[in-house]
Amino acid sequence: MSAGTEPPSTRQPQAPLVMIVGDSFTVGSGPVRGWDGYAARVARELGWQLITAGAAGTGFVNPGRVGRTFRDSFVKELSWRPEPDMLIISGGRNDRRIEAVRIESAAVHLVELVRRRWPHTRIVLVGPIWMTKAPRWAYGVREAVALAADRQEVPFLDPFEPLGPHGRGWGRGAVLPDGVHPTLVGHVRLSRWMVSTLHKHGIDPRSPRGT
Prior knowledge:
- By secondary structure, the protein is an alpha/beta fold.
- The protein has one domain (17-200): 3-Layer(aba) Sandwich (Rossmann fold), CATH 3.40.50.1110.
- The chain contains six helices and seven strands.
- The protein has helices at 24-27, 38-46, 70-78, 100-117, 136-152, 184-200; strands at 17-22, 28-29, 32-33, 49-54, 86-90, 122-126, 156-157.
- Strands 4-1-5-6-7 form a five-stranded parallel β-sheet.
- The mean pLDDT is 91.
């Protein structure tokens, strides 16, 4: 090597920082821990640094047994951290018997709060997840979250979409005996769906917000 030249850099590009807030489907439930859940699997597949927040039984409006909504989880667990490249807000299943307009309003206000705290962070909303056929009321929750995403001009990922018009679920072996939560197989299928959907819509945490 000639004098005055430097060896080529071997330093790898920094992995994008992604945070996600959600319910038990996101943080882990039953025999499936968070590190084996769909969010962690997506992060490993796409090379993200991931920080997970939230708690079982919570929603946009429903505080659950832990006494905090998605907004509260964001404030307590995430908002004080350095600005990430992307934040995913995933859920709504626990907002049962709550008016759709309240769910939509809570989701809108949460996105607004995130933008005030982190103006450059890419935000993605994910609707409620059902491993089996979703009840009629669940479609109202999904529409509320979708409307909030539309109002705030952020991407909306719809977990009902792969279920088809009859909403028959994620296939054999995807749900635990409780009839609610995903098995390890279910989380694998959810992660594949999310990776595919992110690619389909060109959602990349490295992209500037709004692109």
